[in-house]
Amino acid sequence: MASIKKFQVTFDCAEPERLARFWCEVLGYVVPPPPEGFATWDAYREAQPPDRRDAWFACVDPSGEGPRLFFQRVPEGKAVKNRVHLDVRVGTGLVGAERLAALEAERARLVPLGAVHVRTLYDGHNACIPMRDIEGNEFCID
């Protein structure tokens, strides 16, 4: 039997810190301490060569259970639909109107943060809300 491995999810993006902070708000994640030898993230940033400043940022689950999210700056913009996306699980175990209400409450919380509501899928029993983050990456409230 294979052992379970730790993993991180990496996002290519234009503004790593901005996108990381958005996902911190969505998931309740936190910004980890700056790299060893630096008192603050600003001190780390200033120590980097100009072309490497703001090249990456990360956020972590404060409980240590969820994967680390890593955001790396790339020169090209998003061009097509994601092949992989995150499902933000807020309706687990709920069905019908109760599930839809939980998902809609989360949608209402995320839109002011910059998320874009794509549509609401609801068949009277199950619900899912496709969204886009502040750089256009697809995710679902599930």
Describe this structure in words.
The chain is of the alpha/beta class and 142 residues long. It has 2 domains: 8-73, no CATH class; 86-141, no CATH class. Helices cover 24% and strands 23% of the residues. The chain contains 3 helices and 8 strands. It has helices at residues 16-27, 41-47, 96-110, and strands spanning 8-13, 56-59, 68-73, 86-88, 116-117, 121-122, 127-132, 138-141. Strands 4, 5, 6, 7 and 8 form a 5-stranded mixed beta sheet that branches. The protein has a 3-stranded mixed beta sheet with strand order 1-3-2, covered by helices on one side. Strand 6 and strand 7 form a beta hairpin. It is globular and about 55 Å long. The two termini are 31 Å apart. The model has no long low-confidence stretch (mean pLDDT 94).
- Can you tell me the number of structural domains? 2
Percentage of β-strand residues:
15-25%
Question: Given the structure, what is the number of helices?
Answer: 3
Number of DSSP strand runs: 8
Q: Describe the global form.
A: globular
Backbone CA Rg:
17 Å
The percentage helix is: 10-25%
Low-confidence stretches: none
Largest sheet: 5 strands, mixed
Order of helices and strands: EHHEEEHEEEE
Structural class based on helices, strands and sheet pairing = alpha/beta
Keywords:
142 residues, 24% helix, three-stranded mixed β-sheet, alpha/beta, globular, single chain, five-stranded mixed β-sheet, 2 domains, 3 helices
Describe how the helices and strands are arranged.
Blueprint: E1 8-13, H1 16-27, H2 41-47, E2 56-59, E3 68-73, E4 86-88, H3 96-110, E5 116-117, E6 121-122, E7 127-132, E8 138-141
